[in-house]
Specification:
heterodimer; A: 110 residues; mainly beta; 6-stranded mixed β-sheet; 3-stranded antiparallel β-sheet; 9 strands; B: 4-stranded antiparallel β-sheet
Amino acid sequence: QSALTQPASVSGSPGQSITISCTGTSSDVGAYNYVSWYQQHPGKAPKLMIYDVTNRPSGVLNRFSGSKSGNTASLTISGLQAEDEADYYCSSFTSSNTWVFGGGTKLTVL
Amino acid sequence: EVQVLESGGGLVQPGWSLRLSCAASGFTFSNFAMTWVRQAPGKGLEWVSAISIHVDRTYYADSVKGRFTISRDNSKSTLYLQMYSLRAEDTALYYCAKCGSNGCHGVDYWGQGTLVTVSS
C-alpha cells in the first residue's frame, strides 16, 4: 500500500491554470476509474472535489476538473483564485480492496 | 444537514487501547458505507479503515490490520474504531467520514477529527 506520488508543491498566478499529477500503479490508479481528489485548507477537514476520476460533487465549481491516463491521474484548476490555495490530495481504490492517498500537494497562488 | 462528530480521542501510552466513536446525523446512516482517515501532525492523509452498509464487510490498511476494528451500530447511527496495541506512529487526528453513493470512492462528508496521542 505505497502512497500515490504527487508533486510536493505547485504554484500559479491568479487567472492561470495549474495541473497536479498523481501517479500510482497498475494495481490502483491504472486499474480502476476510482480516483478522487480532496482540498484541505489549514486546520480544516478535507473537502471532496472530484470523484470517479472526472465527476464533480454538487457545489464544486467547474474550474476544477479531473482526468486520467494510464497510471497517472490529474487535477486541473483553471482560473486560479486566491481561495484555491490549499493542500490537495488524490486517492485511489486498490486491487487489495483498500484505498490509498497521495502524499499531498501544496498549491500556492502567487 | 449532514454531520459527523467524532469523540473518544486522548493521550494514551504505547500498548494501550482506545475506542473512537462517530455520531452521524442528517442522512440515513444505514444506507452508506463509512470510513476512518487519519492525519499525523504536519503530515498527509492516510486511509485507515472502512465498513460497508453490511457490517460484515470491513477493510483495513496494512498498518492497522490486526490491531484496529471498525464497527457500526445502524440503530444508533454511530461508527466506531476500536484501537488496540497503540504505537507512537498511530498519533494522529482521526477523521470519521461518510462515503458517497458509489461507496468510498468519493468521501463526501468529513468530521472535524478527534486527536489521538500515543506517548509515554
